[in-house]
Write a structure and sequence with these properties.
Helices cover about 30% and strands about 25% of the residues. With about 400 residues, it is of the alpha+beta class. The protein has two domains: about 5-270, L-amino peptidase D-ALA esterase/amidase (4-Layer Sandwich), CATH 3.60.70; about 280-405, Roll (Ubiquitin-like (UB roll)). The chain is globular.
Length: about 400
């Protein structure tokens, strides 16, 4: 039996009992919103996944340590935008503790119930007097309609905010899942995503929720790449709070959790710095799903593939070359390859298609025309195994270089 999930307004505050706010505290010279807060109802559990980089911000360790110490009990997450507060020495932890402690007092919570995320330039500490002065107006702005403001206040180089909320009827009751994310550059997660927060108004045991979140992350945020660089601040936090859900509906809940996560992950890839299109790679025929995701992610992350897509050049040899170095063993003689509906290989052999010569270079006109689409779908079959996986990325343009060459100026 399937349980369809339908879009609903509200983002991270769509689920019952969740509050959020986003304000302009003055942390950014641009004058844009830069301080965000999400508060979960009493009894909430929180699951988190974090960057595996050994060079990481103190806020990442603080979140992970508090969730481990409390068994996944957390009520709030504060996010500052503009300063990553990574590689700032002892001050990074001191400032994170000071910020969460001050917020906990205002919310009437224990310090370890408050988490913190930071995003911005590495090596730049948080201007603490500005942040602390912003806490009172931030708390005052908390609202069940505050999802939009919170989603805008976590952005850095993003061109658009990234939100989604879904609802479904599970066992005669309405259940909602909401989420928000940020990310545009330094996107190649090895745990979760740049920054993302999810909310759910169904009660789930902490250990069950953590397992659900980990699987959803592997199929979403851990399957995207923009530029091959993992951030020092990657953090994904998912809250669940509400009337306990009957275990017979756990699979349906996980399907909704995965759907929200994949939507946000695709939005991050499409908003990659300088990107002009989204690339989706679907792989089948491996022994396990994880292997298919690895192949797909390797193809998405190939600079040569990304450049070919940007140039609208169906140079499928780059796709096969990337798949071959993924570390996953497969038989090249079994490969089948499509660009959209255009099949270019079968049983390891290139297929004949319309390939007129132009300026001494052979190019498939139909496939080149397909590459003009906003979303480019690459399908790759590598065998007869049951494994399937998807990954998402974006093309690589000269704008990416310009954005990052001038990032701190």
């Amino acid at each position: 039996m399937t349980h369809p999930w339908h879009p609903t307004p509200g983002g991270v505050t769509a689920p019952k009992g969740f509050l959020a706010a986003g304000i302009t505290a003055g942390l950014k010279a641009s004058g844009k919103a830069d301080l965000s807060l999400v508060v979960a109802p009493p009894g909430a559990v929180c699951a988190g996944t974090f960057t595996t980089s050994v060079v990481r911000a103190a806020c990442v360790d603080l979140c992970a340590d508090r969730l481990a110490a409390t068994g996944g009990r957390a009520r709030a997450v504060l996010t500052n935008s503009g300063q990553a507060n990574a590689c700032t020495g002892d001050r990074g932890l001191v400032d994170s503790l000071r910020a969460t402690g001050s917020l906990a007092q205002r919310l009437g919570l224990d310090d370890d119930e408050v988490l913190i995320c930071s995003t911005g330039v590495i090596g730049v500490p948080i201007p603490m007097e500005i942040l602390l002065a912003g806490l009172d107006p931030l708390v005052a702005a908390l609202s069940p309609e505050g999802g939009d403001g919170a989603a805008r206040a976590i952005l850095t180089t993003d061109l658009v905010d990234k939100q989604l909320a879904l609802e479904a009827n599970l066992g005669g009751r309405r259940v909602r899942i909401g989420g928000m994310a940020k990310g545009s550059g330094m996107i190649h997660p090895a745990m979760a995503t740049m920054l993302a927060m999810l909310s759910c108004d169904a009660g789930v045991p902490a250990e069950v929720w953590q397992a659900m979140v980990k699987r959803a992350v592997d199929r979403s945020f851990n399957a995207i790449t923009v530029d091959g660089d993992t951030s020092t601040n990657d953090c994904f936090l998912a809250f669940a709070a509400g009337e306990p859900l009957n275990p017979e509906h756990f699979d349906a809940l996980e399907a909704g959790l995965t759907q929200v996560s994949q939507h946000l992950a695709r939005a991050i890839a499409r908003d990659g710095e300088g990107a002009t299109c989204l690339i989706e790679v679907q792989v089948s025929g491996t022994a396990r799903d994880a292997e298919a995701i690895t192949v797909a992610r390797t193809v998405c992350g190939s600079s040569l593939v990304k450049c070919a897509v940007h140039g609208r050049d169906p140079n499928w040899g780059r796709i096969l070359a990337a798949a071959g170095r993924s570390g996953v063993a497969f038989d090249p003689g079994a490969v089948a390859l499509w660009l959209g509906d255009h099949q270019l290989m079968a049983a390891g052999q290139p297929l004949p298609f319309d390939r007129p010569a132009a300026s001494g270079y052979i190019r498939d006109r139909a496939a080149a025309a397909y590459l003009q689409d906003d979303t480019v779908l690459i399908r790759l079959g590598v065998g007869t195994g049951p494994g399937q996986g998807r990954a998402w990325g974006c093309d690589l343009s000269d704008q990416y270089i310009r954005i990052n060459a001038d990032y701190t100026t």
